[in-house]
Each structure stands twice: as C-alpha cells, then as structure tokens.
Amino acid sequence: MESAQENIQEGFILQQLEDGFVKIRVSGHANCDNCQSCDVANLEIIAYNPLSATVGQKVKFIMVEENMLKIAVMVFLFPLLSVFAGLYVGSLVAIVSGLSQAGLMFGGAVLFLIIAIAIIYLYDKEFKLNKSNFPQVIEVISR
Description:
It is elongated and about 75 Å long. About 50% of the residues lie in helices and about 20% in strands.
C-alpha cells in the first residue's frame, strides 16, 4: 500500500480556473527518470487550489485515491451488471407474458443499460461538485 508521501507530487500552475481550481503541469520525479513509459512532461491535471497559488508557481499537490475503486465500479462494473439484470428481467417477463423471449431480453438489457448510464451521469455531476475528490494543492514551493 502506498503511503501518503508517495501520493505527493509537484507541478507548475498553468492556468487559473473558476471556483478555486487550477490546471497543473505535472513535473517528473526520480522514478520517472528510469521508467519513460509515459510522457510526464505533457501531463496536465485539474486540482483544487485552497492556497490561492498563482500561474507560474511551482506547487506540491496530493492525489486523492480513496474513491478510485468506487469510480471504477460505477464506470465499468455497474453497466455490465445492469445489462445482465436487464437480460434476466426480460426473460422473466417473457415467461410470464408468453411473448418473444429474445426480444424482451434485448429490450430489458437496453432499458437497464440506459438507466445505468443515466445514474452514472448523475453520479458524475455530483462527484464533480465535491472539491475533495480532486487533487489538492498543499504547498507553494516557489513564488
């Protein structure tokens, strides 16, 4: 398990955004010198800036990872489970009503997938409103 120290990274503020957010260009660190698997020099993130750091300043920020599992389940597993639930409900409706099983299973899968997408959309809107879900600027290194 990573310690909080490993989640602290550095970068330069590129742009002030509204509601206390900033766009940060992430700086490479010692591990990046040996890896070279990504283009860290061009990696930009959006972070919450409670310290009111300004454009051009080098800052330390912490990545928030506690909600990553919940997000992964919502985005990947929830729609898949919804499709299977729709298939099952469609087959039950077909048995009870005597209508086409394939058609009702397909319709149930599509209906449940649309509902899952709507739920994910609403969850995403709520998630974006919570500033604690974003990386947080914790220190200004250079002024």
